[in-house]
Amino acid sequence: MEGHLFAGIAVSDFDRAVAWYERLLGTPETFRAHDTEYVWTLAEDRSLYVVRKPGSAGHGLLMVMVDDLDAFLSDAATRGIEPEAVETYEGGVRKAVFRDPDGNEVGFGGLPG
Predict the structure, then answer these.
(1) Domain-by-domain residue ranges, the chain?
(2) What are the tens digits of pLDDT across the range 24-55?
(3) What is the pTM of this model?
């Protein structure tokens, strides 16, 4: 199946969340869908959006695989963002778990060497 992945995270305080995601991702939003929905393009045909939806905030789970997890974590740390945990699974796959201000889980993973 081909298509564009457009994954969303519901937040309660939009401005606070946008500031946090800008620090986590290291860039301002790619575009603004409307006043309470901003979109970051992570790679070709892969986007993450944050939307103000207080009733659903805090229940999101998102996982993004990156080419170089160590480089991502180092870059995030320079912006003041640290994971709450880094897990290693059988076979050497790693996952860094971040939580946004609403408690949504945003994971970044990396394959072994």
Answers:
(1) 5-110
(2) 999 999 999 999 999 999 999 999 999 999 99
(3) 0.93
